[in-house]
Design brief:
Helix content is about 20%, strand content about 35%. The protein is of the alpha+beta class. The strands form 2 sheets. Strands 2-1-3 form a 3-stranded antiparallel β-sheet. The protein contains 1 helix and 5 strands; from the N terminus they run ββαβββ.
Length: about 70
């Protein structure tokens, strides 16, 4: 199970392929995306079943995208 960020733009919810382990990470990613895109009206995180986390949200990143791929073990 994972969490995907979504933003509401042009009358519909849009998402990318990123999947996070937690709801707060996905919501933070959606809000960060909201800051970069135009005409975004809202942001949310949705739970997805059967999709493992692919990224984590790096709260220490400044001035660059905060979405980081999960390193392979």
């Amino acid at each position: 199970m994972g969490w995907k960020p979504e933003v509401f733009v042009e009358g519909k919810w849009a998402r990318n392929a990123l999947v996070f382990a937690t709801e707060p990470e996905a919501l933070a990613s959606a809000r960060e995306l909201m800051d970069r895109w135009m005409n975004v009206r809202d942001a949310r995180a949705i739970e997805v079943v059967g999709e493992p986390a692919t990224h984590f949200f790096d709260r220490e990143a400044v001035g660059v995208s905060c979405n980081r791929p999960i390193p392979n073990p």
